[in-house]
Specification:
CATH superfamily of the largest domain: Pseudouridine synthase
CATH topology of the largest domain: Pseudouridine synthase
Order of helices and strands: EEHHEEEEHEEHEEHHEEEEEHEEH
Number of helices: 8
Number of strands: 17
Strand content: 25-35%
Shape: globular
CATH architecture of the largest domain: 2-Layer Sandwich
Structural class: alpha+beta
Radius of gyration: 21 Å
CATH class of the largest domain: Alpha Beta
């Protein structure tokens, strides 16, 4: 609950707490933005409680506390971004929540809008010489958490020490059919053909070893919802492994799917836990999966 009073200054909005609760739920009630957008505002340090800046989602706010939300230039620029929202930003990295349908980086058509081009425009508004560097990619139709570097040195630090830097990569997948086992692991070797399709082999064929672990969250007669954890990060790894299981990702015609009730690929990068390349602190970024994934697997 909140009151509707706002300050006369256009630089901030102030809300008074009338019921004890955690900060994130309070903000969700107070401002008309998505959950991920509110998390982004918190992560950027735009929120203060009784004059003290905070980035803690779980901070308790008490009756009478004043919560101030700054509307700075970064927030304005973020609202103008298309197909993505910024979850976290500092001098070294930018973490985004990418929507399905947005390319990570241009391939053939250099004029096509991509996550890379959107972020490049965004940071150049503050400094024309600023650049962003792509650290890893998500397929066009995969949504969720994605990491960029702000310098070439940081990009190299992350990529050269990928296994140490990335503590966990979690995905949610809506797949075809009823998965019987509650948990499982797929290990195979992946190779890409000249037609850019990745295929899987159960024994070492000179390809890249790929390991995917899954946990069944819920299922219906037609679809299953899986929580997936990558031990390796190979191109199309999840999509290939789901096809190999006999449960292709919904909407993934390239890798065996025959249905698409959600009108998109049923794959979402829900979690990324990293060791910050500069501060060495652990950060976890979580993007809520689309509700359609849950509805179709009930």
């Amino acid at each position: 609950m909140r009151d509707n009073s706002k300050p006369t200054t256009p630089q901030a909005a102030v809300y008074k707490v009338v019921q004890e609760q955690q900060l994130l739920p309070f903000l969700l009630q107070s401002i008309s933005k998505s959950r991920n957008a509110v998390k982004s505002i918190l992560s950027r340090g735009q929120v203060s409680v009784n004059g003290k800046p905070t980035t803690r989602h779980d901070q308790i706010v008490n009756v009478g506390d004043k919560v101030e939300i700054m509307t700075n230039q970064a927030a304005k620029s973020d609202s103008e971004l298309t197909g993505l929202s910024i979850m976290y930003e500092d001098d070294a990295i930018i973490v985004i929540d990418k929507e399905a349908g947005l390319l990570s980086m241009a391939a053939k058509d250099k004029k096509e809008m991509t996550a890379f081009s959107e972020l490049s425009t965004y940071i150049r508004k503050a400094n024309r010489s600023s650049r962003v560097f792509i650290v890893h990619r998500l397929d066009r139709e995969t949504s969720g958490v994605m990491l960029f570097a702000k310098t070439e040195e940081v990009k190299k630090l992350l990529q050269d020490n990928w296994e140490e830097s990335v503590q966990e990569r979690g995905y949610i997948a809506l797949v075809e059919g009823k998965v019987r086992n509650e948990t499982g692991e797929i290990i195979s070797w992946l190779k890409e053909t000249r037609t850019f399709k990745v295929y899987s082999n159960p024994t070492d064929n000179g390809g890249q070893k790929a390991i995917t672990r899954y946990k069944l969250l819920q299922s219906s007669a037609q679809f299953s919802l899986l929580e997936l954890r990558l031990e390796t990060g190979r191109k199309n790894q999840i999509r290939v492994h789901m096809e190999e299981m006999g449960h292709p990702v919904v909407g993934d015609k390239k890798y065996g799917a025959t249905t698409n009730p959600i009108k998109r690929l049923g794959l979402h990068a829900v979690k990324l836990t990293i060791i910050h390349p500069i501060t060495k602190e652990q950060h976890t970024f979580i993007s809520d999966p689309p509700t359609s994934f849950y509805k179709k697997s009930k």
